[in-house]
């Protein structure tokens, strides 16, 4: 029988690096178990997994892509239509009307227009120019099929209006009056919920209008934090001006400092298998392909800033996969007491993780199947295999 949940636990060590920064440029932190830990946000992790373009990337999954941007309509609707020779102003007017309808912002638009009444002329001109902006207020997640459909809708509207900007609004109102039919047209673009694209099917999307379908995330990602207290160092550095140095000046072109950290991070990902299968149009085989790639990506794709000066690339020491039907639970609490960094940190982390799993099994019972790939992990966990076999094993738990 297929699993209901697949849980992926990782231990990954990074030497001198600055993987995820806060607004002040320091490494992100998280107090846990009475000690401050270094943290990598789930947003940072998901971003790197989504855009990874190497072997076994999510882009190799045979499913339409999601476009995550504020300027998606500019790139995939306006620019193609203007390149075809359609009038720029009419295209933008049509696209803006479509955005307002799709995202339920027509009421806001009418309110803004009412607020502009009585303003000086130069303000009205500015408002008129802004009215043709097709940049959305927030980053939107749209499937490529959805953008293609909306581009075709704008194209047909502008052609029906003979390129007249003033006619576009009424024609679109007539074409988009039946919201139920419009929603059905969008859903018919791909089987199941795939009109929103693979990214939305995996990591979800929130929409405020009634036209686009909302997708709940099927991949749940925890913030990764170190199993020990934060280890940090201020990196003082200078940049030498080569030309000035050749003239005999010993000064530097730049003097600065940056925070660097090192640490062994525990990472945790849950795959809601039923949710993933549903988001992928009831295609369990496709869901298995996603999970197989996800196991590989999580183990080998590194997040990280300052790549040029720290080369923050590492493979996981441990990838432990569990498959079953019980409520998922993190193993982060194995490290609620920080691991001492004076000895073998990896071995100590393995021991803490194994002991915590043993206690959980004794209290709640063992209902999950487990397999792992790991460095120096023999004897700590059951069913050890290489990463390729582990990824295939995880896929089999999804496909059943």
SSE topology:
Layout: E1 5-17, E2 29-32, E3 35-40, H1 42-51, E4 66-69, H2 72-83, H3 88-102, H4 106-115, H5 121-131, E5 140-143, H6 144-160, H7 165-175, H8 179-187, H9 197-203, E6 219-221, E7 224-226, E8 231-239, H10 242-246, E9 254-272, H11 273-279, H12 284-300, H13 307-310, E10 318-324, H14 345-364, E11 369-374, H15 387-399
Antiparallel strand pairs: 1-9, 1-10, 2-3, 3-7, 4-5, 6-9, 7-9, 8-9, 10-11
Helix pairs in contact: 2-3, 2-6, 3-6, 3-7, 6-7, 12-15
Question: Notable features of this structure?
Answer:
2 domains; 400 residues; 15 helices; alpha+beta; 11 strands; 9-stranded antiparallel beta sheet
In short:
With 400 residues, the protein is an alpha+beta fold.
Report on this model:
The protein has 15 helices and 11 strands. The protein has helices spanning 42-51, 72-83, 88-102, 106-115, 121-131, 144-160, 165-175, 179-187, 197-203, 242-246, 273-279, 284-300, 307-310, 345-364, 387-399; strands spanning 5-17, 29-32, 35-40, 66-69, 140-143, 219-221, 224-226, 231-239, 254-272, 318-324, 369-374. The protein folds into 2 domains: 5-62 and 217-228 and 262-399, no CATH class; 68-189, no CATH class. It is α+β, with helices and mostly antiparallel strands and 400 residues long. The model is unreliable at 106-116 and 124-131 (pLDDT under 50). The strands form 2 sheets. Strands 1, 2, 3, 6, 7, 8, 9, 10 and 11 form a 9-stranded antiparallel sheet that branches. A two-stranded antiparallel ribbon has the order 4-5. The protein is 42% helix and 20% strand.
């Amino acid at each position: 029988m297929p699993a209901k949940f697949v849980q992926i636990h990782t231990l990954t060590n990074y030497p001198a690096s600055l993987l995820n920064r806060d607004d002040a440029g320091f490494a992100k932190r998280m107090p846990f178990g009475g000690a401050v830990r270094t943290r990598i946000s789930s947003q940072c992790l998901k971003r790197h997994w989504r855009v990874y373009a190497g072997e076994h990337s999510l882009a190799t999954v045979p499913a339409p892509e999601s476009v995550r941007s504020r300027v998606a309509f500019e790139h995939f609707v306006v620019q193609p239509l203007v390149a075809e020779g359609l009038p720029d102003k009419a295209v933008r007017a049509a696209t803006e009307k479509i955005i307002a309808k799709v995202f339920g912002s027509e009421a806001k638009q009418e309110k803004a227009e009412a607020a502009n009444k009585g303003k000086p002329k130069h303000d009205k001109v500015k408002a008129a120019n802004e009215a043709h902006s097709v940049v959305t207020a927030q980053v939107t997640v749209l499937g490529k099929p959805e953008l293609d459909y909306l581009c075709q809708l704008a194209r047909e509207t502008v052609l029906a209006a003979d390129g007249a900007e003033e006619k576009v609004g009424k024609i679109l109102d007539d074409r988009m009056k039946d919201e139920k039919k419009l929603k059905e047209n969008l859903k018919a673009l791909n089987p199941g919920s795939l009109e929103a694209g693979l990214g939305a099917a995996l990591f979800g999307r929130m929409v405020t209008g009634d036209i686009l379908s909302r997708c709940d995330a099927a991949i749940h990602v925890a913030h990764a934090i170190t199993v020990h207290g934060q280890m940090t160092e201020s990196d003082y550095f200078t940049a030498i001006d080569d030309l000035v140095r050749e003239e005999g000046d010993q000064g530097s072109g730049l003097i600065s400092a940056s925070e660097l950290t090192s640490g062994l991070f525990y990472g945790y990902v849950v795959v809601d298998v039923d949710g993933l299968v549903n988001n992928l149009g009831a295609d369990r085989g496709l869901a298995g392909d996603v999970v197989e790639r996800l196991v590989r990506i999580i183990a080998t794709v590194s997040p990280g800033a300052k790549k040029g000066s720290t080369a923050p690339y590492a493979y996981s020491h441990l990838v432990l996969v569990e498959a079953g039907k019980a409520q998922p639970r993190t193993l982060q609490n194995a490290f609620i007491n920080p691991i001492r960094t004076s000895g073998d940190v990896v071995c100590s982390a393995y021991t803490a993780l194994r002991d915590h799993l043993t206690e959980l099994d004794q209290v709640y019972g063992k209902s999950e199947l487990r397999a792992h790939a790991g460095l120096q992990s023999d004897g700590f966990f059951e069913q050890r295999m290489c990463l390729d076999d582990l990824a295939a094993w995880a896929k089999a738990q999804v496909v059943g």
